Amino acid sequence: RERRRGFKQQQQKKRYRESRLQSPAFLLTTKMPKSKRNRPVTLSKTKKKGREQKEKIVESIRKAVEDYNSIYVFSFENMRNLKFKEFREQLKSSSRFFLGSNKVMQISLGRSVSDEIRPGLHKVSKLLHGDAGLCFTNLRKEEIMRLFAEFEEHDFARTGTTSTEKVELQEGPLEQFSHEMEPFLRKQGMPVRLNKGVIELVSDFVVCEEGKPLSPEASRILRLLGNKMATFRLHVICRWSPEDFEVLKEGLELSDIESS
Fold it and tell me: Is residue 21 a part of any domain in this protein?
């Protein structure tokens, strides 16, 4: 009898819970958890901050036009931020550099005769494309040309860099690598095996071909081989001063700029 009574009470509780869950009052008062996917994102602060940053750059560039005697447009290849920072520090007392959005730099100087802030600066803007920057300086032209020409830093090439030479490893032992490196080298696509604790290539292996972009695997292998294929260089394109504008890049004519 007690067992039947307990079973009956359980059934009553179950029916009560089911009826409560289905009642309109419960459905109206119960809140569903918020979906993280539909969470609203406010972009106004981000846009405002980005605009303010651009305005600061424009102001800084326009102030530099007044503070320095001449402006140089330069291009760069295989940029290495740390080395470029050292170069900037070297010229800190006499020069100031700007890198970033070419469009912002163009707007700062003026992109046409009608909106340029000083005569001839629209020509400078036309040469700001690709990997380029501005150098404002009080140094003489000869000094700037020498510093830029002498600046050169060799480093390991990154993925996607165009190979400057063909690198091929010959079949045989690779004694520069310890035996623990064998699994890693195999992962890079190298046909290797262990022979009495020494890694050896079972066949010739081409790491990279001249003129072709480096794969991630080729970049890693070249680093292991100590092959610094990339060279960070700076190239002067043109010079502007209140008195004149001069094209300094070989093969580029002033008429090409004026007609563009």
Answer: no
